[in-house]
Amino acid sequence: MLNSYKSPLVAGQGGVLTEEVGVLTGDLELRTTLSKDGVVTAKVRYAGATEWYHLRGGSCRVADDRDHAAVHSLLVGVLNRPTG
């Protein structure tokens, strides 16, 4: 793992879909990690919890490692919906 970013977010009605447990709503944290082969993987967890869950469809390959920050910011912008 080269680097990772974490951000708080609030998933309103509809929540975010995970591979392991289905939909999560409420106060969450998003973590994206970049592997050595250029794959960004996104996981979420309830704020303060220990268990991370894979975001459904939450991985992609980036052409440049510097794109990781942009992918993370985009995900936060899309997933943070405190009012639904």
What can you tell me about this protein's structure?
With 84 residues, this protein is of the alpha+beta class. 15% of the residues lie in helices and 55% in strands. The protein has one helix and four strands. A four-stranded antiparallel β-sheet has the order 1-2-3-4. The chain starts with a strand and ends in a 5-residue tail after the last helix. The model has no long low-confidence stretch (mean pLDDT 94).
What's the SSE blueprint?
Layout: E1 3-18, E2 22-34, E3 39-46, E4 53-61, H1 67-79
Antiparallel strand pairs: 1-2, 2-3, 3-4
Q: Which descriptors would you attach to this protein?
A:
alpha+beta, 15% helix, 84 residues
Describe the structure in brief:
Helix content is 15%, strand content 55%. It has 84 residues and is of the alpha+beta class.
